[in-house]
Specification:
CATH topology of the largest domain: Rossmann fold
Structural class: alpha/beta
Protein name: DNA-binding response regulator
CATH architecture of the largest domain: 3-Layer(aba) Sandwich
Mean pLDDT: 86
Keywords: DNA-binding, Phosphoprotein, Transcription, Transcription regulation, Two-component regulatory system
CATH class of the largest domain: Alpha Beta
Organism: Rhodoferax lacus
Number of helices: 10
Distance between the termini: 37 Å
Order of helices and strands: EHEHEHEHEHEHHHHH
GO molecular function: DNA binding
Number of domains: 2
Number of strands: 6
Largest sheet: 6 strands, parallel
Pfam families: GerE (PF00196), Response_reg (PF00072)
């Protein structure tokens, strides 16, 4: 039996994933979490072969969960299931230690196949991601500026582009306003931009929001 833990901050999303997996006789959902701290606790107390993880969590995000698992030498295999476009995030997640990536808008049956594949020690990506990986190998590297951003910087960019004020971003990420201002300054420097409006335009042009 493949034991799965779900981590997504939306209960309805977790329910949808759980219902999809319940149709597979060889998969059992053993736990659920809605944040970084919750999933850390669940993984300490619950058997898990595959963690299905969202990227956009309150406070510390999915990439930080990946980093924590890797640093701790965890044997849990991670499938990212996210709303973010594959062409912007899949390769980033795989490089960070994920074992698979699926878009939430994809075919639910693909989720079952992905869990089974990952539990067997293999990687799982969609046909679109496979093509991107092949293209990356055969073409000269042309990384975007935002590929150099840290997890916190990327989170800050997405929230600024979504119209959040710095005080709101600080509250949502559980950081001080001063710290968020530092991330914003780094964003402007790394992306070679001048203000929040330009950050928003950059995010839209690069289909990050």
């Amino acid at each position: 039996m493949i034991k799965v833990v779900l981590c997504d901050d939306h209960a309805m999303v977790r329910r949808g994933i759980r219902d999809t997996l319940s149709e597979a006789v060889d998969i059992q959902v053993t736990g659920e979490a809605g944040s970084y701290s919750e999933v850390r606790e669940v993984l300490r107390t619950t058997p898990c072969d595959v963690l299905i993880l969202d990227l956009n969590l309150p406070g510390r995000g999915g990439l930080e969960v990946l980093a924590s698992l890797r640093e701790g030498g965890s044997a849990v295999r991670v499938l990212i299931v996210s709303m973010f476009a594959e062409d912007q995030y899949a390769i980033r997640c795989l490089r960070a230690g994920a074992h698979g990536y699926l878009n939430k808008a994809g075919d639910p049956t693909e989720l079952v196949a992905a869990v089974r594949t990952i539990s067997q020690g293999r990687k799982y990506v969609s046909a679109a991601v496979s093509e991107m990986l092949v293209n990356n190998l055969s073409e000269p590297s042309s990384e975007t500026l935002h590929s150099t951003l840290s997890e916190r910087e990327l989170q800050t960019l997405l929230k600024i582009a979504s119209g959040r004020k710095l005080s709101e971003i600080a509250e949502e990420l559980m950081l001080s306003p001063k710290t968020v201002s530092v991330y914003r300054a780094r964003l402007l420097e790394k992306l070679k931009l001048g203000n929040n409006a330009e950050l928003t335009v950059y995010a839209i042009r690069n289909e990050l929001v």
